[in-house]
Amino acid sequence: MSTLFDDHSTETANATVVSSEREELILVDADDEVVGYRSKGDCHDGEGILHRAFSVFLFDNQGHVLIQQRSADKRLWPLYWSNSVCSHPRRGESLDYATGRRMKEELGCRSALEPVYKFQYQARYSELGSENELCSVYLGRVESELAINPTEIADWRFVSPDDLERELAETPDQFTPWFKMEWGQLQSRYTSQLEAYTCPAL
């Protein structure tokens, strides 16, 4: 495990609340064309309304992936483990801008990102609502010390791909549904892109 990050000896970011049920998200069709805007709360009610989203996987120089445990205050999948950053561009934001904003807000860092693929999925979380997203998936490396925002993240750690595979097989219910789908696709269909990050950096 990375000696730079694995002891949690990071600064804590300003514990500012950086998300709201009232923020406007971007509604899209299956071709990712914008069809309107609705609040995050509305987008997650019931079966959900299809909206634009993104997921970021960040790796350290030893090829371990950063995963986070979602805050207990999250409406959907609280305290579940998920990928490094996952969120939505807001009305008027590009994906490039939104991914950078969210890494800064949650992790206190910035990273160059490689877009890999996008996919559509829907997942229900009991009676509390659903994710219904057209999600763009990115890979990148952690390029600075982390400063974790505790209003968004309950816990975090770097894990090797082999250990992650073992955890996903043994305790799948501890992970968010989109994370399991995305990691599976990266492992099976985007092997060369993933290996560029899971192999230790020279």
Can you tag this structure with a few keywords?
single chain, 3-stranded antiparallel sheet, Nucleoside Triphosphate Pyrophosphohydrolase, 11 strands, alpha+beta, 5 helices, 34% strand, 4-stranded mixed sheet, 202 residues, globular
Fraction of residues in helix: 10-25%
Shape, per Cα inertia axes: globular
As for the number of domains, it is 1
Q: Unreliable stretches, pLDDT < 50, 5 or more residues?
A: 1-10
Walkthrough of the structure:
By secondary structure, the chain is of the alpha+beta class. It starts with 10 loop residues before the first strand and ends with a helix. The protein has a single domain, classed as Nucleoside Triphosphate Pyrophosphohydrolase (Alpha-Beta Complex). The protein has five helices and eleven strands. The protein has helices at 40-44, 95-107, 161-170, 177-189, 191-198; strands at residues 11-12, 24-28, 34-39, 51-59, 65-70, 81-82, 85-87, 113-125, 129-141, 147-148, 153-159. A hairpin with a 5-residue loop joins strand 2 (24-28) and strand 3 (34-39). The model is unreliable at 1-10 (pLDDT under 50). It has a four-stranded mixed beta sheet, with helices on both faces.
